[in-house]
Amino acid sequence: MAPLNLWLRCETKEFEHRSALTPSTAKKLIDAGFTITVERDPQRIFDDAEFEQVGCTLAEHNSWPNAPLSDPIIGLKELPPNDTSPLPHTHIMFAHCYKQQGGWEEVLGRWKAGLPTAMLYDLEFLQDERGRRVAAFGYHAGFAGAAVGALALAKQVGSEGEAARLGEIKPYPNEGELIKYVQGQMSAIEAKLGRKPRALVIGALGRCGRGAVDFFKAAGFEDDNIAKWDMAETAKGGPFSEILEADVFVNCIYLTSKIPSFISPESIAAAGASRNLRVVVDVSCDTTNPNNPIPIYSINTTFDKPTVDVAGIKEGPPMTVVSIDHLPTLLPREASDAFSNDLLPSLLTLPQALAEREPRQGKPVQASEAGTGPERVWKEAEALFWSKVAELPQ
């Protein structure tokens, strides 16, 4: 079998600094017999030279459309918008189109148009035999989300009439620097509130929720002032008045179906002037999902404009929402290292999976055919792709 060339594409999403491969994981793949092509990328936290030094071949920025069809294209975030051209390559990425998000038909339709060679292995749905994701940015998403929430709170309560909003935020070199900076804001927050701040995290037992709780603790929130909710606490169904008693609410759930709203315009209005809640961080970011349990905003925010105001607030303090869909890029080096190392064992089985797929190129496969071999994760993802393509309007 000829060596598999894995093509690391650049990230074109604004403010995205993470990478699906790191120089260290690229080196491990090369040592295992892969060849690696890396597109030049000025945004990436790792310098191009770091990849070149471990044996990768550099390619021009955003040149993957001209790559051989036999080269799987690996990246993280979505491809540039306003492009409907077919995608005949195999792509490994977060496509954000399997839960019928806004525009999902157009996104997935590009792979359908690229058949028979096209394939999407969506990173969100690569699962082990227990149904857990083989690699996820969840921990760093929660960690960074809690940090941005605390920073947004500090900015609001620190201004006259709480009119100020958090400005552009840039990546931190490491967790320690981020924690140190937010710790420096805590005394001002406490002085303005006249008490210790309170946080509530839903999904606290998952990777994302653990990250949020760990950050709040490290930044100086007292443990008793961090409400750690999970399925047991939300079983009764919302909206939940307890959320409105916290200063920062962080949503870390993985949404799979419609559930009662956690908060709503009606529950906010009912709390009136007694409401403490000022900042909502929707790490889950199901903004365009019709089942979004936080129906108080309708846009994703960005690193240059991290918050959006909740409209219709008539009593109590202003309320803002953080809905950045790539929060881990606040800590791009650590987040990339953790994710890429978790993904590595699955990547090592990719050549076998592609060789097994080749004879049936362009033909659907069922999840029941995935088997139990090490490449099973890819075959299950392949079956999911075909099931989602079947949902596209004819």
From TrEMBL:
GO terms for cellular component: cytoplasm. Keywords: Amino-acid biosynthesis, Disulfide bond, Lysine biosynthesis, NAD, Oxidoreductase. Residues 178-323 form the Alanine dehydrogenase/pyridine nucleotide transhydrogenase NAD(H)-binding domain. Its EC number is 1.5.1.7. The active site is at residues 77, 96. NAD(+) binds at residues 132, 206-207, 230, 234, 254, 283, 324-327. It comes from Rhodotorula paludigena. Residues 356-376 are annotated as: Disordered. Disulfide bonds join 208-252. SMART domains: AlaDh_PNT_C (SM01002), AlaDh_PNT_N (SM01003). One of its GO terms (molecular function) is saccharopine dehydrogenase (NAD+, L-lysine-forming) activity. Pfam families: AlaDh_PNT_N. One of its GO terms (biological process) is lysine biosynthetic process via aminoadipic acid. Residues 7-144 form the Alanine dehydrogenase/pyridine nucleotide transhydrogenase N-terminal domain. InterPro entries: AASS, AlaDH/PNT_N, AlaDH/PNT_NAD(H)-bd, Lys1, NAD(P)-bd_dom_sf. This is Saccharopine dehydrogenase [NAD(+), L-lysine-forming]. Belongs to the AlaDH/PNT family. The keyword NAD applies.
